[in-house]
Specification:
By secondary structure, this protein is α/β, with parallel strands linked by helices. The chain has helices at about 30-40, 55-60, 75-90, 110-115, 140-155, 185-195, 220-250; strands spanning about 1-5, 10-15, 15-25, 45-50, 65-70, 95, 125-130, 165-170, 200-205. The longest helix is centred in the C-terminal third of the chain and has 28 residues, at about 220-250.
Length: about 250
């Protein structure tokens, strides 16, 4: 099902046109605030409802000036991002992704844009500040360090926050990386594939909101997603070893 609302005209600066992509799955407590704050940036806003079973769609359906794309069933964060990219590529040169759970300040996207060097088209990843505070979930703190290490071992760049969902992607370059993962693992695999395809990856600081007692909901499942992460990294490392072996023979 596809529901379209009128879209704001994309803003343009010296680096090109930007659109915001927000993947959402069962985030009815926060998604409306996130979308409304994103609209203040005066860029196209695309929300991908990834098969939510709560009132996520109802919370945003009447917000003017956005596009809502809906997956009939949950397909995963990576799949939602890719759906958003396809729509964003129609009107923009870059896609800004941010999570629907309320952990980001959408206005920090301006800092990420300013971090883009002129005449370069990197992926820009927001380094979440304050992740070592006790209010940050242990799964987020552990997962970040775990992911940073294995992204590097897999042949990707050295990262400070490889799991951050607040990013800028160059379009259509990011769409052509042949990323296989469709869930949370998309965000680590795309970094490895970018490095292999000579797409720069840079980082810039962003704020993060981890308040005790807040309604922030994470759908990261430690055991299930650890297994999926292991599978993704195993595949990437195997590919790296195979490619290194072939290059040494040549």
């Amino acid at each position: 099902m596809l529901t379209l609302f009128e879209m704001t005209k994309p803003e343009k600066n010296i680096r090109g046109r930007f659109a915001i992509v927000i993947p959402a799955y069962n985030h009815d407590h926060k998604v409306k605030d996130v979308v409304e704050n994103a609209l203040k940036l005066k860029m196209p806003v695309i929300v991908v409802d990834d098969g939510s079973t709560d009132s996520t769609f109802d919370r945003i359906r009447e917000i003017e000036g956005i596009i809502i794309l809906r997956h009939p069933t949950n397909q995963g964060k990576g799949a939602a991002i890719m759906t958003g990219f396809t729509q964003a590529a129609r009107v923009a040169d870059w896609a800004i992704t941010l999570d629907a759970d309320g952990q980001h300040h959408p206005e920090d996207a301006l800092g990420l844009i300013r971090a883009i060097p002129e005449r370069q088209r990197p992926i820009v990843v927001g380094i979440r500040q304050g992740m070592l505070r006790t209010s940050a979930p242990w799964t987020s703190r552990f997962g970040r360090n775990f992911s940073n290490f294995w992204v590097w071992v897999s042949g990707g760049p050295r990262m400070n926050d490889s799991q951050s969902g607040f990013r800028i992607y160059p379009l259509p370059e990011a769409m052509g990386l042949n990323v296989k993962a469709r869930r949370f693992q998309y965000e680590v695999e795309v970094l490895v594939k970018a490095r292999r395809n000579q797409i720069p990856v840079i980082e810039a600081p962003v704020r993060v909101i981890y308040n005790e007692g807040s309604h922030r909901i994470s759908h990261f499942r430690p055991f299930v997603d650890f297994v999926r992460n292991f599978g993704t990294f195993s595949r990437l490392i195997t590919q790296r070893i195979f490619c290194l072996g072939n290059s040494s023979k040549g």
